[in-house]
Design a protein that fits this description.
Strand content of chain A: 15-25%
Oligomer: homodimer
Distance between the termini of chain A: 32 Å
Largest interface: A-B, 58 and 57 residues
Helix content of chain A: 40-55%
Largest sheet of chain A: 5 strands, antiparallel
Radius of gyration of chain A: 21 Å
Number of helices of chain A: 10
CATH architecture of the largest domain in chain A: 2-Layer Sandwich
Shape of chain A: elongated
CATH superfamily of the largest domain in chain A: GAF domain
Order of helices and strands of chain A: HHHEEHHEEHHHEEEHH
Strand order of the largest sheet of chain A: 4-3-7-6-5
Chain lengths: 253, 253
DNA sequence: AGGTGCGTTGCAGTATGTGCAACGTCCATT
DNA sequence: AATGGACGTTGCACATACTGCAACGCACCT
């Protein structure tokens, strides 16, 4: 809606790919160098971009700090965390918490496995939306129209032979997940990694978050991991209960 | 430099304090509601803000994802990580990596303690700049003019009785740190937590990052922690060596 | 019904952002 | 050393695109 702001914000994902100089930014924005310069300067004043010693721009520290605050403001994370830790203490595997927001699913908390083999994933990282167990739960709860629209819009990268191949398969899987109330990802993202996930629901029954336990084949088989399902569901339900009991977070006066 | 972008970006830290509705945003920006609406819409299109069910705005998922990418692009983090993990395996305590950027010091990596007592800190979180051991190392290396200007600009919150009280004390401490080549924080931030830190240097000898080992009094005494100094310095030097040896990261074609 | 608070829309005026062209600087090349 | 090119930077005139206003719609409350 606002051209100037629109252009300025378009610079950020561009820089996320890697550092770029003024000319590159101007070219990719399709504007004159002087225009790009002024936008970058404004972004710089706010600490959103940083000018490194070779004069090129990259994303700045304030951006990272802001994102940090954004996550700390999510009350679901705060409530869930101790539960995730407890589950990790019981089973030893990696535990994730994820939320859905406008076409993206992202991890907002993680407790590392106590086994030597660690998974590659990070808080704040967008999830492989078409295969991850937590993503299935979050999307399965969307209103039908939105769910279909999103499924059509998505791409279906074939990470492995068991990745969800296309929209119809995905929608079918979502329905199955919706009925059974839990989800799995058996090697759909990385060949040797399996996950079991359960939904966290708000007072109105809508899914507000999803949590999962993940472990590589070399540690436990898929069957052994599935045996943890009751524990995972109990944990998710406990979080749901605590979350529903509270009044939604208000501003601190 | 660009008024519109400037205003739009000013919304973000404002929302970082907590969700806000249109009226509040407009008021705090000092602009008309319709103006604020257009800015918020533009931010929304880019996923930087999210409109929750009660119509209020809060920071959005794309912001978090961007920050994530920003950190993954920091080559120093990538190089340092395995070293941090190794140090953690040796000593068991929490290990941090931090960088300085335009008046802020922030953690860019962390390996959790293997003792049951965990520290409160998070990747991406700005560091208590006047007391943290890593901050001392990073600031001690700034050009004198910049260092003095910054020291004057800072605030000196008294977290504990041992917090750095004011600019002169801070500058004196920085000189000491600069000479000895390492730094400590002995209960300056939280009464019972101590840290030992060492600098990571680039090929030109400038400090590009700093790493620290932290542990609460209940686990080890300050003296015991200080005994780890040689190990910490060795680790930091190893990272420095590897970082200097490499050509600075270029765009992947 | 009537009133209040909030988000939203269309519009006219002009402040504000835009592209241009020229300049300075640094680096590579001859 | 001298020349050329690439890149960031500046000042300026133009008109686009942003602003604030006022009116509207809507939901909620009394």
């Amino acid at each position: 809606m606002s051209q100037t702001v629109d252009r300025a914000l378009s610079i950020l994902p561009l820089l996320a790919e890697g550092p770029a100089d003024l000319g590159q930014v101007a070219e990719r924005l399709g504007v004159h160098k002087s225009t790009a310069l002024r936008l970058l300067r404004t972004l710089h004043e706010h600490g959103m971009v940083y000018r490194q010693s070779d004069q090129r721009y990259r994303l700045g520290a304030r951006l990272i700090a802001l994102a940090q605050e954004a996550m700390e403001n999510l009350d679901i994370r705060e409530i869930a965390h101790p539960h995730l830790v407890r589950l990790n203490e019981q089973c030893g595997h990696t535990v994730h918490l994820a939320v859905y927001e406008e076409d993206e699913v992202l991890y907002i908390d993680k407790v590392e496995s106590r086994y030597p083999v660690r998974m590659y994933s990070r808080i704040g990282k967008p999830v492989a939306i078409t295969v991850a167990a937590v993503a299935k739960l979050l999307l399965a709860d969307l209103p039908e129209a939105e769910r279909h629209a999103l499924a059509d819009k998505l791409e279906y990268p074939l990470y492995t032979a068991r990745s969800t191949p296309n929209a119809p398969a995905f929608l079918k899987e979502l329905e199955r997940v919706s009925e059974q109330g839990w989800a799995t990802d058996l090697g759909g993202h990385e060949e040797s990694i399996n996950c079991v996930a359960a939904p966290v629901r708000g007072a109105d029954g809508r899914v507000v978050a999803a949590m999962s336990v993940s472990a590589p084949n070399v540690v436990v088989t898929a069957e052994e991991l599935l045996a943890l399902l009751p524990q995972v569901r109990r944990t998710a339900d406990a979080i749901s209960g605590e979350y529903s009991g509270r009044t939604p977070a208000k501003d601190p006066v």
